[in-house]
Amino acid sequence: MSSVRDFGAVGDGRHDDSDAFEHALDQGDGLLVLPRGDYRVTRSIRIDLDRRRRSGIDGSGGTARIVMDGPGPALLFTGTHGGTADPRTVSPSVQDVERMPTVRHVEIVGRHPEADGIRLEGVMQPTITGVLLRSLRHGIHLTGRARNVLVSHSHIYRNTGVGIFLDHCDLHQTVIASNHVSYCRLGGIRVEGGGIRNLQITGNDIEYNTNASLAVPDGDEPTAEIFIDCRDGSIREGTICSNTIQATATPGGANIRFIGAGAAGGRQVGMWTIAGNLVGSQTTNIHLTSALGFAITGNFLYSGHARTILVEDSRALTLGANCVGHNEDYGTRGLSPGIRLVDCQDVAISGLVIQDLPAGRNTVEGAVETTKEALVEVVRCRRISLSGCQLLDGVPAGLLVEDSDDVLVTGCTILDGRAEPLMEHAIRWRSSGGPPRGCGVHACRLENLDAPAGVDASANVIGRSASDR
């Protein structure tokens, strides 16, 4: 180990310790230890792994602080890895000299509007654990090629940019786990472009990553706790599991947002699972655009001001065994849920439980007033199945099917249990181009069914109708 103080660092928060850091990295034995203190630096401390060799930075159990008083990252790790994670593509120099750079147990604080925390470029097996990154622009910034990245047990807090920013990366085998990522203005975890495979976001608390959380006026770019933007690149093979994902509603904002419409067309984002999360308190909880291949299951989704789930121009989705509702602690001050599919095909919805509010409308002050026509809306879609679901207390309908073909509803309960019912129809069909084709309703318990010609409706149990109330 080499102590940065042995190479001239003062650590008083005023003296510029940049030269001492670089001296220690040049002359030290690889592990740079920062004893307790506030180490002010005015330029990026660059760790060129091919030159500095195996390197790590340790903040002595969290007692050390780096104060970045200049633009750019406080710590910049650069490597030369040009292969994949396949051992046959990892050069001996990378495996022997550059592998697994580490940063642990240190706080990095920004004192410049363009100060970042840690940037990784061309690195193999970087490991960041137990760090606090705050008052920066971006907390962790990955660019270029990287493989086998681990970020865990860290606090990324109150930054003006993104908490963890994957910026046009060629990135595989990355795990982001057990972190607090909160109050970062442009998103908690944000991915823009690049070629990404095997990204796991697991067991984190990701919340309040909005303009409002930093008292900044809303801009043109909507925010999200997890924002996967693939308008430039291909992003596939990932999981968002066992996280708490919450926010303050912002115009156009979402807790989880995927955009897969690339410049060349097609659906460039997919092969993802969203499972076992608590997701709530945003304009939209989950928003997918031009996605291909998603499994969304086992989540509790609540307080979407406009929609709980909004899916546009997407294919091959399963939406199952989720509970959609609101926080009962708020009583009548809840938010009305809703799921909307537009221009989608090959979607299976099963085991869903969704219940509207007693009032049938948003009642939280400042919420976006919805114009939804049903708890679940299917618009201009094909090959949609709804099975084993409970759609309760919808206003004005439980399910709306509009200009859609091959929609099958099986074994569902669509009822209004309020003392003064507000649901006009369990299912409402609407078509502007003639009768729907290949649609059917079978073995359901329904309040009232509006089934036009072209819809096969048999063996259903029909309850009271609007005219009976």
Written overview of the protein:
The protein is mostly beta strands. The chain has a single domain, classed as Pectate Lyase C-like. The protein is elongated, with a radius of gyration of 26 Å. It starts with a strand and ends in a 7-residue tail after the last strand. Mean pLDDT is 91; it is low at 465-469.
Q: How many beta-strand elements?
A: 43
Mean pLDDT: 91
Q: Termini separation (Å)?
A: 80 Å
Low-confidence stretches: 465-469
In the CATH hierarchy, the third-tier topology is known as Pectate Lyase C-like
Q: How many structural domains in the coordinates? A: 1
Tell me the name of the CATH class. Mainly Beta
Shape by Cα distribution: elongated
Main beta-sheet annotation: 43 strands, parallel
- By DSSP (H or I, 4+ residues per run), the number of helices equals 3
CATH architecture heading: 3 Solenoid
The portion of residues assigned to helices is: under 10%
Strand composition percent: over 45%
The value of Rg in angstroms is 26 Å
